[in-house]
Design the sequence.
């Protein structure tokens, strides 16, 4: 029997706009957007989101990856970084509907800056969850098995009694290998149908899309 549901944040509960980060940085530096996109330091990003790199060190990694000369302040970098986060999606209504009936947890690849931004914006779903698993606390990012194992241990849940919802198929596949009832999120109506298949009753709720 399902008793716990893990929700991803970006792309599921909140719309994300990576292009807005790139556009802002491009406007600040006069460097073409595609050049910035190619130069983005993915390794440093992973280290930052697994708690192994400080915020200033992440900024420096980005700064050093860009072609010289250019001008970008650290405050402009972080302002651009915040532009990734958009508005809440209709899935938040599903989460609220299920809270109280199931243990609701967040399971997200994220970073301290984005979590602070979410709190500052007072996103509504934070008041309806029982716990939060963030990659920078777990020391691993999805689809690494370690973060799922950390989530199970920290929450006290069992994979076979848990649903995991994520918009990235590689994360869903990893969760399924570990025994989670995982759903590849595409849109809110599809999610409701998938939850109903697992006898999680949300078919009667009205969702504003």
Sequence:
């Amino acid at each position: 029997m399902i008793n716990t549901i893990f929700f991803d944040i970006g792309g599921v509960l909140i719309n994300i706009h990576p292009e807005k980060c790139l556009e802002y940085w491009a406007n600040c530096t006069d460097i073409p957007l595609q050049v910035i996109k190619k130069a983005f330091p993915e390794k440093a990003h992973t280290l930052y989101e697994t708690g192994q790199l400080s915020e200033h060190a992440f900024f420096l990694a980005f700064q050093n990856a860009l072609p010289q000369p250019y001008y970008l302040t650290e405050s402009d970098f972080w302002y651009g970084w915040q532009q990734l986060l958009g508005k809440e999606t209709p899935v938040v209504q599903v989460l609220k509907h299920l809270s109280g009936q199931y243990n609701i947890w967040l399971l997200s690849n994220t970073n301290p800056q984005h979590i602070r931004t979410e709190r500052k914006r007072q996103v509504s779903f934070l008041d309806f969850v029982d716990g939060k698993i963030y990659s920078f606390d777990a020391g691993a990012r999805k689809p690494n098995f370690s973060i799922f194992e950390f989530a199970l241990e920290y929450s006290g849940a069992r994979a076979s009694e848990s649903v995991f919802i994520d918009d990235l198929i590689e994360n869903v596949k990893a969760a399924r290998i570990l025994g989670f009832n995982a759903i590849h999120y595409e849109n809110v109506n599809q999610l409701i149908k998938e939850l109903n298949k697992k006898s999680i009753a949300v078919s009667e709720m009205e969702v504003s899309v």
Summary: The mean pLDDT is 94.
